[in-house]
Design goal:
It is a single chain. This protein has 318 residues and is α/β, with parallel strands linked by helices. It has 2 domains: 47 residues; 251 residues, 2-enoyl-CoA Hydratase, Chain A, domain 1, CATH 3.90.226.10. The protein is 48% helix and 16% strand. It is globular, with a radius of gyration of 21 Å. The model has no long low-confidence stretch (mean pLDDT 93).
């Protein structure tokens, strides 16, 4: 169970706890089948009621759920023979980004992704999923190797944003992200991007240039966090929910705007309720899109990718 309770999910978590207690009693030989069935129905009805009317801010909280599966969980569930690489060959290694080679359905691929931590020690080690420049340069090193050996690239996005600390700025944070955008735009191999949790600003986009952009149903993807938006625009943290509504950062919003290509449905109650089921959904989507992209010539692939991102957004004369 999560150590942090998200307020709007509390009724669901309480019923889930009650179901677990009743199931434990059943295993001890106590006959409570009637109460167990009733609680399960109540749980299902509560989940349906809450999830049928989620606000954009509630989706933000869901995308940050402490039990939500992170990139390494998906990598180990979806791929085989994963070999992680370390270091950017310039400064050092950044645990906030994982990168390496693996097999997908027997085919060799490159995998990169943001990685958060579970307990306090791992959160600190992985800097809460906020990469420094060496993380982006490590990912780029792996992606260039993938292009050299003609291997598709799968990228998992889940970060609140790139680390804004002075050490990251001194080592060229903006340049590292910008260079990744340039390099990824021109790689002559299929690139599939999956936004699994938070997609925060340039920190996400630094791994986000691809031929197909897929997004988990309750993930978010935005130029800035709602908290940051409220602080900059209104200098008022009380307007965070209002900022979330204005940002249109949910998967349905972004599909309608043409930023992403497909929304991946999450298991009943969210990805954290069935990580294996979510991994299976992502795996099926990757397989489907990869099959299509492998038929496209490398030069056409790059041209389409460039056109795809240049077409995003519209401007109007006032």
């Amino acid at each position: 169970m999560a150590t942090i309770v998200i307020p709007f999910l509390e009724p669901i978590e309480n019923l889930r706890d009650k179901i677990l207690e009743l199931e434990m009693d059943t295993r001890k030989g106590i006959d409570n089948s009637s109460e167990l069935d009733k609680t399960r129905r109540e749980h299902e009805e509560t989940v349906n009621r809450i999830f049928s009317s989620l606000t954009r801010w509630q989706r933000c909280l869901l995308a940050r759920h402490p039990d939500r599966p992170y990139s390494l969980a998906y990598i180990h569930d979806i791929f085989t023979d994963f070999t992680e690489f370390h270091g950017d060959r310039r400064f050092g290694d950044d645990p906030a980004i994982v990168a390496g080679f693996a097999r997908f359905g027997g085919e060799p691929v490159a995998v990169v992704g943001h990685q958060k931590g579970r307990d306090t020690a791992e959160k600190v080690r992985r800097n809460f999923g906020m990469p420094r420049p060496e993380g982006y340069r490590k990912a780029q090193r792996i992606m260039k190797l993938a292009a050299q050996f003609k291997r598709p690239i799968i990228s998992f996005i889940d970060t609140p944003g790139a680390y804004p600390g002075i050490d990251a700025e001194e080592r060229g944070q903006a340049e590292a992200i910008a260079d990744n955008l340039l390099v990824m735009a021109g790689l002559p191999v299929p690139i599939i991007v999956v936004v699994t949790g938070e997609g925060g600003s340039g920190g996400a986009l630094g791994l986000g240039i691809g031929d197909r952009i897929l997004m988990a149903e309750h993930a978010i993807y935005s130029v800035i966090s709602p908290e940051g938006c409220a602080a900059i625009l209104w200098k008022d943290p009380a307007r965070t929910e209002e900022a979330a509504e204005a940002l249109h950062l949910t998967s349905p919003d972004l599909q309608q705007l043409g930023v992403i290509d497909e929304v991946l449905p999450e298991p009943f109650g969210g990805a954290h309720m069935d990580p294996g089921g979510m991994a299976s959904t992502i795996s099926d989507a990757i397989s489907r899109h990869l099959k299509q992209l492998k038929k496209v010539r490398p030069d056409v692939l790059v041209a389409r990718r460039y056109k795809k991102f240049r077409a995003m957004g519209t401007s109007t004369d006032r």
